[in-house]
C-alpha cells in the first residue's frame, strides 16, 4: 500500500504551463462570451404606442395597489385615480385595438406563429448556444493537451467516488484522491470564476455559469415577457376587482398626522 | 402586523438597494478570495480551512453590521442573514483560491 502521507514532487513547469494558462484562458473566454452575447442581442422590438399604453395601464393599477395599505397619497388622489382606472378597464379604453366589439372572442395569438414571440425564444436559444459551445471547446482542449498527469493537490479530502472523475488520465488505483488532474482544475475554475466575472463585468454579465443552470427556466420565463399573447381584456377585468379590494385596504400614512405629531412632542394632553 | 416586512421593504428606494447589494457582493467576494489566499498560504487542510472561511465570513458580516450602524434593515432588504450569508458563488471562489495558493506554496517546490 503506497504511503498516502508521502507527498509527490511536481515540476514547477507544470504550474507555469498548465495551472496559470488554464485559469487565464477561462477568464478570457468568459469575458469574450459576455461580449459576444452582447453583440448578438438584437435590440428589443418597439411596440406601438397603443400596445405600450395597454401595458402601462396595468402597471399603474398595480403600483397603486401595492402600497395601498400604507399609501403615500392622500384619499382624494387615491380615490380619483382608482376610479378612473376602474372605469377605463370596464370600458376598454386602454385596449390596443379599441373597446371590444360585440362578442367576438379574442383568442391570444398562437405562440409559434406570432413573430414577436419567436424573437424572444430565438434570443434565449442563441444565448444558450453561446454559453455551451466555449465550455465544450475548452473541455476538449484540456482533455487533449493536459491529460495524463497530476496537476495539483486539493487541500480538502473527497470520497473515493470522485476518483474516477478527478483523476481521469492517471491510472493509479491507490493514490490519494486529493491528487487531481487538470480536468478537475477546470471544474474548480468553472465554478469559482463567477464571482470574478461579476466583479469585472458588472451584475448582468453573460459569462456567469450559475445562470446556465437556470436557463431552462429562464427560456420559459422569457416567453411571458412578450405579453402579446396575453389577453388584456381579461386581465383588465381581474385588475378591476383587485383595485376594489385594494381600495378597501387603503390607509393614508398622513392620516391624523397633526394629532400624531402633537402627541409625539407632548403638546397635546 | 403581517404587512410589516412589506412596509419595511416599501421604505427602501430600489436603485439604492441595488447599489447596496452590488457593493455587499463585492465585499463578500473579496473577503472570500483573501480568506482563500490566507488558508492556502498557511497550508490549512480540511476542516481548518473551512473553519477559516466561516471565521472570515463572520468577521466580514460583523464589520458590515457596524457599518450599517446596527440597523441592516435600513440598507438591505431582509435582516442579518442577508449580511452573513456568503452566497454559493463565494464558497466556490474560496475553494478555488485556496487550492491555487495551497498548490503554489506547498505542492510546488
Automatic annotation (TrEMBL), chain A:
Localization of this protein: Membrane
Superkingdom as given in the UniProt entry: Eukaryota
Single biological process term from Gene Ontology: protein folding in endoplasmic reticulum
Entry GO CC: EMC complex
Keyword Ribonucleoprotein: no
Residue ranges of the TM segments: 17-40, 130-152, 183-201
Region (Disordered): 99-119
InterPro entries xref list: EMC3, EMC3/TMCO1
Its job: The EMC seems to be required for efficient folding of proteins in the endoplasmic reticulum (ER).
Family statement: Belongs to the EMC3 family.
Name of the molecule in the record: ER membrane protein complex subunit 3
Origin species: Postia placenta MAD-698-R-SB12
From TrEMBL, chain B:
GO terms under biological process: autophagosome assembly; protein folding in endoplasmic reticulum
Keyword Membrane listed: yes
Localization terms from the record: Endoplasmic reticulum membrane
Alphabetical keyword list: Endoplasmic reticulum, Membrane, Transmembrane, Transmembrane helix
Superkingdom of the source species: Eukaryota
Upper classification of the organism: Eukaryota, Fungi, Dikarya, Basidiomycota, Agaricomycotina
Protein name: ER membrane protein complex subunit 6
Protein topology in the membrane: Multi-pass membrane protein
Family label: Belongs to the EMC6 family.
Transmembrane annotation, as ranges: 25-44, 50-68, 89-108
Cellular-component GO terms for this entry: EMC complex
Signal peptide: none
Amino acid at each position: 500500500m503506497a504511503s498516502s502521507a508521502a507527498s509527490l514532487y511536481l515540476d514547477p513547469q507544470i504550474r507555469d504551463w498548465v495551472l496559470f494558462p488554464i485559469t487565464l484562458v477561462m477568464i478570457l473566454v468568459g469575458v469574450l462570451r459576455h461580449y459576444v452575447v452582447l453583440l448578438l442581442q438584437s435590440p428589443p422590438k418597439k411596440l406601438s404606442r397603443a400596445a405600450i399604453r395597454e401595458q402601462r395601464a396595468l402597471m399603474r393599477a398595480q403600483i397603486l395597489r401595492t402600497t395601498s395599505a400604507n399609501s403615500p397619497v392622500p384619499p382624494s388622489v387615491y380615490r380619483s385615480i382608482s376610479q378612473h382606472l376602474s372605469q377605463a378597464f370596464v370600458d376598454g379604453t386602454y385596449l390596443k385595438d379599441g373597446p371590444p366589439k360585440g362578442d367576438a372572442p379574442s383568442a391570444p395569438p398562437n405562440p409559434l406563429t406570432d413573430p414577436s414571440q419567436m424573437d424572444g425564444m430565438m434570443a434565449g436559444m442563441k444565448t444558450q448556444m453561446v454559453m455551451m459551445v466555449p465550455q465544450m471547446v475548452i473541455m476538449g482542449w484540456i482533455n487533449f493537451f493536459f491529460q495524463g498527469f497530476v496537476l495539483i493537490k486539493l487541500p480538502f479530502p473527497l470520497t473515493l467516488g470522485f476518483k474516477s472523475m478527478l483523476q481521469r488520465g492517471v491510472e493509479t488505483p491507490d493514490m490519494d484522491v486529493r491528487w487531481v488532474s487538470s480536468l478537475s482544475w477546470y471544474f474548480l475554475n468553472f465554478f469559482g470564476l463567477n464571482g470574478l466575472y461579476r466583479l469585472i463585468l458588472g451584475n448582468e454579465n453573460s459569462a456567469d455559469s450559475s445562470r446556465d443552470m437556470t436557463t431552462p427556466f429562464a427560456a420559459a420565463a422569457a416567453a411571458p415577457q412578450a405579453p402579446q399573447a396575453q389577453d388584456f381584456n381579461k386581465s383588465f377585468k381581474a385588475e378591476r376587482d383587485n383595485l376594489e379590494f385594494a381600495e378597501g385596504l387603503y390607509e393614508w400614512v398622513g392620516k391624523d398626522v397633526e394629532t400624531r405629531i402633537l402627541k409625539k412632542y407632548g403638546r397635546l394632553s | 402586523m403581517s404587512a410589516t416586512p412589506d412596509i419595511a421593504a416599501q421604505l427602501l428606494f430600489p436603485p439604492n438597494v441595488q447599489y447596496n447589494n452590488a457593493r455587499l457582493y463585492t465585499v463578500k467576494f473579496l473577503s472570500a478570495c483573501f480568506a482563500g489566499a490566507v488558508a492556502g498560504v498557511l497550508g490549512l487542510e480540511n476542516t481548518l480551512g473551512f473553519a477559516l472561511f466561516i471565521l472570515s465570513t463572520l468577521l466580514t458580516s460583523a464589520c458590515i453590521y457596524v457599518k450599517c450602524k446596527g440597523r441592516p434593515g435600513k440598507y438591505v432588504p431582509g435582516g442579518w442573514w442577508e449580511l452573513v450569508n456568503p452566497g454559493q458563488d463565494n464558497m466556490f471562489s474560496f475553494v478555488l483560491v485556496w487550492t491555487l495558493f495551497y498548490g503554489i506554496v506547498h505542492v510546488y517546490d
